[in-house]
From TrEMBL:
Alphabetized PANTHER family for the sequence: DOLICHYL-DIPHOSPHOOLIGOSACCHARIDE--PROTEIN GLYCOSYLTRANSFERASE SUBUNIT 1B (PTHR21049:SF2), RIBOPHORIN I (PTHR21049)
Subunit and partners: Component of the oligosaccharyltransferase (OST) complex.
Top-level taxonomy: Eukaryota, Viridiplantae, Streptophyta, Embryophyta, Tracheophyta
GO terms classed as biological process: protein N-linked glycosylation via asparagine
Protein name according to UniProt: Dolichyl-diphosphooligosaccharide--protein glycosyltransferase subunit 1
Matching Pfam families: Ribophorin_I
Function: Subunit of the oligosaccharyl transferase (OST) complex that catalyzes the initial transfer of a defined glycan (Glc(3)Man(9)GlcNAc(2) in eukaryotes) from the lipid carrier dolichol-pyrophosphate to an asparagine residue within an Asn-X-Ser/Thr consensus motif in nascent polypeptide chains, the first step in protein N-glycosylation. N-glycosylation occurs cotranslationally and the complex associates with the Sec61 complex at the channel-forming translocon complex that mediates protein translocation across the endoplasmic reticulum (ER). All subunits are required for a maximal enzyme activity.
Amino acid sequence: MPPSLATLTTSILLLSLLSAVSSSSLPQENGIRVVSAEKRVDLTGSIVKVFLTLKVENAADAASDASQVLVAFTPTEVEHLSIVKAMKVEGKRKKKAYTPLSVQALDLTTTPNGACLYSVQLSTPLKPGEATTLEVLYVLTHSQEPFPAEISQSESQLVHYRDSAVLLSPYNVMEQVTYIKMPSNRIESFTRVDPTGRAGTELKYGTYKNQMPYTYIPILLHYENNHPFAIVEELVCKVEISHWGNVQITEHYKLKHGGARHKGVFSRLEYQSRPSISGTSSFKKILARLPPRVHSVYYRDEIGNISSSHLRSDSHKTELEIEPRYPLFGGWHCTFTIGYGMPLQDFLFESDDGRRYINLTFGSPLLDTVVDDLTIKVVLPEGSKNPQPVVPFLVDHHLETSYSYLDVVGRTTVVLKKKNIVGEHNVPFQVHYEFNPIFMLAEPLMLISAVFLFFVSCIAYLHMDLSIAKSS
Ligand SMILES: *[C@@H]1O[C@H](CO)[C@@H](O)[C@H](O)[C@H]1NC(C)=O
Ligand SMILES: *[C@@H]1O[C@H](CO)[C@@H](O)[C@H](O)[C@H]1NC(C)=O
């Protein structure tokens, strides 16, 4: 019996509905699938790092080349997502070559379970039947939640971490495994999703086969993590360029221990007499990695200079060990300032078009630390014009004018702002600007004229006869 007209129209309707849904919510390149995926989660620090190795394939019968591969995150992950980096891997074993790829957040709201998609742009489109291997690194901050939220001085810190046993992906995943590296042997509990295994400090979820797109299997881990939860709530970094040979850096920090809050009173006696068990979750120093050849390094807080800090330097780097006046326990704050000078010739260059540019490092020099709110102010020499920052990721920026001694018109200042900064953001950035060398003479000329005026007035004063007696 031939199908009736009614069923035909319904099926056509259904088909067109289906295609409408897929074109609005799913990626254009439907031919992509993940042949194998490996997810490695590193929980050994206070910052969570996740490495994905994805072997993706464009189906042999795909209608078109694929120019992008999508990576999915949950809305909670996006809230804590600090950076996503992707690379294409070519070659095998020791001859691997990595090509960085650009990553963009997509603005799609129609994905199942609210997943947010990021697009990895392939450097060469993937033809039907071709496969490629991608490595993706993403960093999550504030994602290990202390549980219990309050502990006393001698207790260890336990935290919760939530994730999915399988890779959240808009594609079919043929084969997948997840490894989770724990900070210590003490694991209170972890969700099992068979097969699940534990070997020392590593958990293994999988291998899982043939997952549907957007599969998400929640897992909850509860474990000990006494790594310093150092959080810089606010960092304002000022860079002052003087064409007379110096770059002066001043950094104001508002540091916090972001782990489980400290409960009860703090006993310094107990802290000092039993250092191995008392205050295991606290930290008393933090390391800053500064550029080589820095000079006049200082470290002070609101009371004054702190001389207990240690400075070590070699030809590649300088390390400053910052030791606040008291150890930091969960919820405790301290504010301090570090400052140093750097030789101008290491950082200031001239570009081909005759403009100058300063080449600095973004982010904070503190190791293993999250910066919630970063402001970098690059104060250009007086008389600089048309500044233009070049930063390899999105930042907010605006211009302002700052004044210092002997300034007449003020200094153009480029202000860069970004939230949720981690070590992966420590990459070079530049500020290009125009400068007329005649301005170099402004300050000395002002000084000379001031000194000259002073002498002239001295001479005038000495030669003036101010006595009343003679004039009579
Ligand atoms: C603090 O150290 C800086 C740099 O070493 C120095 O110039 C300043 O005089 C010191 N201040 C005090 C109060 O010791
Ligand atoms: C900036 O400095 C870094 C090293 O600190 C260097 O690798 C990079 O090439 C420099 N960039 C420019 C544009 O000069």
